[in-house]
Design goal:
heterodimer; A: alpha/beta; Aspartate Aminotransferase, domain 1; Aspartate Aminotransferase, domain 2; 2 domains; 7-stranded mixed beta sheet; 4-stranded antiparallel beta sheet; 12 helices; globular; B: mainly alpha; Arc Repressor Mutant, subunit A; two-stranded antiparallel sheet; 5 helices; 2 strands; 42% helix
Chain lengths: 387, 120
Amino acid sequence: MVSCKKTIYLDNAATAFPKPREVLEEMVEVYSRLGVSPGRGSYDLSMEAEERIMDIRREVCQFFGGSDPERVIFSYNATDGLNMLIQGLTRPHSRVVSSRLEHNSVLRPLHHLNQQGILGLDLIPFGSEGFIDPMAVAEAIRPDTSFVILTHASNVLGTVQPIEQVGAICRERRVPLLLDVTQTAGRLPIHMEAWGVSAVAFTGHKSLLGPTGIGGLVLSPGLDVEPTRFGGTGRDSLSLDHTQVYPQRLEPGTINVAGIFGLSAGLRFISKRGMENIYSKELGLGRRLHDGLNSIRGVWVYPASLHDPWVPIMLCNVDGMDPEDLSSILDGDFGIAARAGLHCAPLVHEDLGTSPKGGVRFSLGPFNTDEDVDQVLEAMVRISRAR
Amino acid sequence: MEGTAQTPPVRQELGERVRHIAGREITFDGEGFFWDPHQWSEDVAMALAEEAGLKDLGEAHWAILRFLRGYYFQNGRSPLNRQIKEGTGISLMEMEALFPGGIKYGARRLAGLPNPRNCI
């Protein structure tokens, strides 16, 4: 067996690991100085914290190509933000267009409302290469469609969807397009307003390299999301009616101040290194891993062939081996951490024919190296030969 | 080591079922894992192995099963991947090949441990 002193971490689609030391240090440093309830008091520290948080809303807004920093809403993660969007935009007896590529963070809230008879659901398929067809979205939109909600990139296949074309269709049909950028934020430029996207939902702990527990939404000015949670916001406190003013309208309770500082530090880290540089390194390693796996007899790789744009996420299986066992062997014998199963995207696996056991997903991050790829390929060759 | 514990009621809605194997009444979950590890015995393991197509459990099989059970009852949880390898001196790749069904559905199931449910 290969002697492994350190774990080769290839589960970056779940969460980036490790986090950059600079990010953690900056988060602790800023939180140590400004970790008070922002904007909820008239004392200087609270005002300074609020000012800093507002600066970060501006950073986030600019990062995603939004236009109004007050419509940057902080949430726990992308799932939390997507729930806010879906529940806050659903009109009773309307329909929603989405796809079979989605993560359960989109599918389950939609399914829940569908089961309750509140909305109808039109899920468009993806092709053999892992992409949806924008024309299928156009055909699925009906007069009673409330919104279209799509993932920017599949969390199983890494295929980046043709959002600009879908955005043009949605703009023309006057249907809001909501985008789940969980796997692309921090890897690829996102221009929500230019693309005709009405809202993006992001998480801070993946390619944005922040801590877990922070994510959010960026809303375009034309999109009003009804609050589905209510509480203290630090404004209009005399009234029992929840405030309608953004961002507090969707941010009841004290926000995750430490997480927001960490998110900002992650954005700064990406900016210093250059998002394009980070992505191009990850992409190079991903392509090499994909091609290497594809060349091993008895190993199945999804997507079978790569088409741009792609983020370095791929699924694989070894002939006749349970994916959970493959993951255990990679971990226990070779020190390689990769995630087995369905990756919370059951319909993707159903359509790939890998359900119900799924496969093993390899997802690269900014700290993976050529040596990591070499060791994974060596391990996979040994495992497949031993069959 | 394996103290007495009451067997929880069978919940058929969760796919649980009761079978009589080697003179014991055993509750399995929907994936064929023991609901109560105390219901296991060596005779039961041999019967389940035969069902899975393994006529004889050899020394290597028993070493693995005993390690898995010993670790579970000592620590209250199943061993981690690296602990299995360290504890048995057998690689996971070899273990996967030793048991029909592999590591999870072979070794862990025959050891009579509860389903190591991961979020998949």
